[in-house]
Amino acid sequence: MNIQNRISEILATEAAAIAAVRVTPAFEQAVITLRDSTGKVITAGMGKAGHVARKFASTLCSTGTPAHYLHPGEAAHGDLGIVEPGDCVVAFSTSGKTQEVIDMLGKSRALGIGTIISITSHPESELRDLSDIVVDMGIITEPCTHGLTPSASIAVMLAISDALALVLMDLKQFSRAEFGRRHHGGYLGVQSRTDPEG
Q1: Which domains does the chain have, with CATH numbers?
Q2: Beta carbons of 43 and 90 less than 8 angstroms apart
Q3: Residue 132 contacts residue 148 (beta carbons within 8 Å)
Q4: SS3 (DSSP) at 94
Protein backbone atom coordinates (compact mmCIF):
# COMPACT_ATOMS: atom_id res chain seq x y z
CA MET A 1 0.00 0.00 0.00
CA ASN A 2 1.18 3.49 -0.82
CA ILE A 3 0.50 5.26 2.46
CA GLN A 4 0.58 8.79 1.10
CA ASN A 5 -1.81 7.93 -1.72
CA ARG A 6 -4.16 6.21 0.71
CA ILE A 7 -4.19 9.24 3.02
CA SER A 8 -4.86 11.54 0.06
CA GLU A 9 -7.69 9.25 -1.03
CA ILE A 10 -9.32 9.36 2.42
CA LEU A 11 -9.02 13.14 2.64
CA ALA A 12 -10.50 13.52 -0.83
CA THR A 13 -13.40 11.20 0.03
CA GLU A 14 -14.25 13.15 3.19
CA ALA A 15 -13.97 16.50 1.38
CA ALA A 16 -16.21 15.22 -1.41
CA ALA A 17 -18.80 14.03 1.11
CA ILE A 18 -18.97 17.52 2.61
CA ALA A 19 -19.13 19.16 -0.81
CA ALA A 20 -22.01 16.86 -1.81
CA VAL A 21 -24.33 18.07 0.97
CA ARG A 22 -27.48 19.62 -0.49
CA VAL A 23 -28.45 22.73 1.44
CA THR A 24 -32.24 22.66 1.62
CA PRO A 25 -34.83 24.89 3.33
CA ALA A 26 -34.57 22.56 6.35
CA PHE A 27 -31.14 24.03 7.11
CA GLU A 28 -32.63 27.52 7.27
CA GLN A 29 -35.57 26.27 9.34
CA ALA A 30 -33.14 24.73 11.81
CA VAL A 31 -31.17 27.96 12.23
CA ILE A 32 -34.32 30.08 12.62
CA THR A 33 -35.73 27.62 15.17
CA LEU A 34 -32.52 27.75 17.20
CA ARG A 35 -32.52 31.55 17.05
CA ASP A 36 -36.14 31.83 18.16
CA SER A 37 -36.13 29.10 20.81
CA THR A 38 -37.31 30.40 24.17
CA GLY A 39 -35.75 27.50 26.05
CA LYS A 40 -32.38 25.79 26.13
CA VAL A 41 -30.72 24.06 23.22
CA ILE A 42 -29.97 20.45 24.09
CA THR A 43 -27.72 18.36 21.86
CA ALA A 44 -27.62 14.57 21.85
CA GLY A 45 -25.87 11.70 20.13
CA MET A 46 -24.16 8.40 20.88
CA GLY A 47 -20.65 7.25 20.05
CA LYS A 48 -18.80 9.37 17.47
CA ALA A 49 -21.99 11.34 16.80
CA GLY A 50 -22.10 12.11 20.51
CA HIS A 51 -18.67 13.72 20.31
CA VAL A 52 -19.95 15.96 17.50
CA ALA A 53 -23.06 16.79 19.54
CA ARG A 54 -20.89 17.74 22.51
CA LYS A 55 -18.67 19.91 20.31
CA PHE A 56 -21.76 21.59 18.79
CA ALA A 57 -23.04 22.50 22.25
CA SER A 58 -19.62 23.93 23.13
CA THR A 59 -19.49 26.00 19.93
CA LEU A 60 -23.01 27.31 20.55
CA CYS A 61 -22.09 28.36 24.09
CA SER A 62 -19.07 30.34 22.93
CA THR A 63 -21.04 32.04 20.15
CA GLY A 64 -24.01 33.33 22.11
CA THR A 65 -26.45 30.43 22.33
CA PRO A 66 -26.54 28.58 25.68
CA ALA A 67 -26.57 24.83 25.04
CA HIS A 68 -26.09 21.60 26.94
CA TYR A 69 -25.04 18.14 25.76
CA LEU A 70 -27.28 15.35 27.08
CA HIS A 71 -25.90 11.82 26.88
CA PRO A 72 -28.80 9.64 25.70
CA GLY A 73 -27.69 6.72 27.86
CA GLU A 74 -27.54 8.86 30.98
CA ALA A 75 -30.91 10.41 30.07
CA ALA A 76 -32.50 7.07 30.98
CA HIS A 77 -30.99 7.35 34.46
CA GLY A 78 -32.24 10.75 35.51
CA ASP A 79 -30.38 13.24 33.34
CA LEU A 80 -33.52 13.68 31.22
CA GLY A 81 -34.61 15.95 34.07
CA ILE A 82 -32.80 18.83 32.36
CA VAL A 83 -35.47 18.85 29.63
CA GLU A 84 -38.20 21.47 30.03
CA PRO A 85 -41.10 22.65 27.87
CA GLY A 86 -39.86 24.99 25.17
CA ASP A 87 -36.38 23.48 24.92
CA CYS A 88 -35.03 22.52 21.50
CA VAL A 89 -33.19 19.24 20.93
CA VAL A 90 -30.65 18.74 18.16
CA ALA A 91 -30.11 15.00 17.72
CA PHE A 92 -27.14 13.56 15.81
CA SER A 93 -27.29 10.06 14.33
CA THR A 94 -26.04 8.95 10.93
CA SER A 95 -28.30 5.89 10.87
CA GLY A 96 -31.21 7.54 12.66
CA LYS A 97 -31.74 4.18 14.35
CA THR A 98 -29.65 4.51 17.52
CA GLN A 99 -31.99 3.18 20.18
CA GLU A 100 -30.75 5.35 23.06
CA VAL A 101 -31.37 8.48 20.98
CA ILE A 102 -34.81 7.29 19.87
CA ASP A 103 -35.82 6.50 23.46
CA MET A 104 -34.56 9.86 24.73
CA LEU A 105 -36.51 11.79 22.12
CA GLY A 106 -39.70 9.87 22.79
CA LYS A 107 -39.45 10.61 26.51
CA SER A 108 -38.57 14.25 25.78
CA ARG A 109 -41.83 14.60 23.87
CA ALA A 110 -43.69 13.49 26.98
CA LEU A 111 -41.90 16.24 28.94
CA GLY A 112 -43.07 18.90 26.49
CA ILE A 113 -39.92 19.45 24.44
CA GLY A 114 -40.41 22.28 21.97
CA THR A 115 -38.75 21.20 18.72
CA ILE A 116 -36.65 18.24 17.66
CA ILE A 117 -34.07 18.85 14.94
CA SER A 118 -32.20 15.84 13.61
CA ILE A 119 -28.98 15.65 11.63
CA THR A 120 -29.01 12.27 9.92
CA SER A 121 -28.25 10.34 6.75
CA HIS A 122 -30.23 7.14 6.28
CA PRO A 123 -33.46 7.86 4.36
CA GLU A 124 -35.59 5.46 6.36
CA SER A 125 -35.33 5.78 10.12
CA GLU A 126 -37.42 6.32 13.20
CA LEU A 127 -35.42 9.44 13.97
CA ARG A 128 -36.87 11.18 10.91
CA ASP A 129 -40.38 10.29 12.07
CA LEU A 130 -39.71 11.75 15.52
CA SER A 131 -38.23 15.00 14.19
CA ASP A 132 -39.88 18.32 13.40
CA ILE A 133 -36.96 19.36 11.18
CA VAL A 134 -34.60 16.96 9.38
CA VAL A 135 -31.22 18.26 8.25
CA ASP A 136 -30.16 15.67 5.68
CA MET A 137 -26.51 14.67 5.46
CA GLY A 138 -27.04 12.77 2.20
CA ILE A 139 -25.95 9.21 1.51
CA ILE A 140 -22.34 8.79 2.57
CA THR A 141 -19.78 6.08 1.78
CA GLU A 142 -17.14 5.67 4.46
CA PRO A 143 -13.55 5.46 3.14
CA CYS A 144 -12.70 2.79 5.71
CA THR A 145 -11.49 -0.44 4.06
CA HIS A 146 -14.47 -2.23 5.62
CA GLY A 147 -16.94 0.60 5.04
CA LEU A 148 -17.65 0.69 8.76
CA THR A 149 -15.49 3.23 10.63
CA PRO A 150 -17.42 6.53 10.95
CA SER A 151 -15.19 9.13 9.31
CA ALA A 152 -16.72 10.75 6.22
CA SER A 153 -20.11 10.73 7.95
CA ILE A 154 -18.63 12.40 11.02
CA ALA A 155 -16.81 14.98 8.89
CA VAL A 156 -20.14 15.86 7.24
CA MET A 157 -21.95 15.95 10.57
CA LEU A 158 -19.32 18.25 12.04
CA ALA A 159 -19.33 20.55 9.01
CA ILE A 160 -23.12 20.87 9.08
CA SER A 161 -23.16 21.62 12.81
CA ASP A 162 -20.45 24.26 12.36
CA ALA A 163 -22.41 25.87 9.54
CA LEU A 164 -25.56 26.03 11.68
CA ALA A 165 -23.65 27.51 14.63
CA LEU A 166 -21.84 30.15 12.59
CA VAL A 167 -24.94 31.29 10.68
CA LEU A 168 -26.83 31.45 13.99
CA MET A 169 -24.03 33.62 15.37
CA ASP A 170 -24.31 35.91 12.35
CA LEU A 171 -28.10 36.18 12.70
CA LYS A 172 -27.67 37.20 16.34
CA GLN A 173 -25.07 39.80 15.31
CA PHE A 174 -22.81 38.31 17.94
CA SER A 175 -19.79 40.59 18.31
CA ARG A 176 -16.08 39.91 18.73
CA ALA A 177 -16.28 41.50 22.19
CA GLU A 178 -19.15 39.22 23.19
CA PHE A 179 -17.14 36.23 22.02
CA GLY A 180 -14.27 37.38 24.24
CA ARG A 181 -16.51 37.63 27.30
CA ARG A 182 -17.40 33.96 26.90
CA HIS A 183 -14.03 32.73 25.66
CA HIS A 184 -11.64 34.92 27.61
CA GLY A 185 -8.86 32.38 28.09
CA GLY A 186 -6.07 31.14 25.87
CA TYR A 187 -5.03 32.26 22.41
CA LEU A 188 -8.60 32.95 21.24
CA GLY A 189 -9.26 35.05 24.33
CA VAL A 190 -6.26 37.22 23.47
CA GLN A 191 -7.34 37.41 19.82
CA SER A 192 -10.85 38.48 20.81
CA ARG A 193 -9.38 41.51 22.59
CA THR A 194 -7.20 42.47 19.61
CA ASP A 195 -8.44 44.89 16.99
CA PRO A 196 -8.69 42.82 13.77
CA GLU A 197 -7.90 45.96 11.76
CA GLY A 198 -4.79 46.79 13.62
Answers
A1: 3-192 (3.40.50.10490)
A2: yes
A3: no
A4: coil
Q: What is the pLDDT of residues 107-146, one digit of tens each?
A: 999 999 999 999 999 999 999 999 999 999 999 999 999 9
Q: Report the C-alpha gap between 119 and 96 in whole angstroms.
A: 8
β-partners of residue 25 are none
Q: Are 153 and 142 in contact (CB under 8 A)?
A: yes
Any alpha helices (H) in the chain, and if so which ranges?
3-19, 25-36, 47-62, 72-75, 99-110, 126-130, 152-171, 176-182, 186-192
Given this model, what pLDDT does residue 197 score? 60
Residue 129's nearest CA partner among 110, 102, 108 is 102
Q: How far apart are CA 198 and CA 196, in angstroms?
A: 6
Dihedral pair phi/psi, residue 41, rounded to 5°: -100, 125
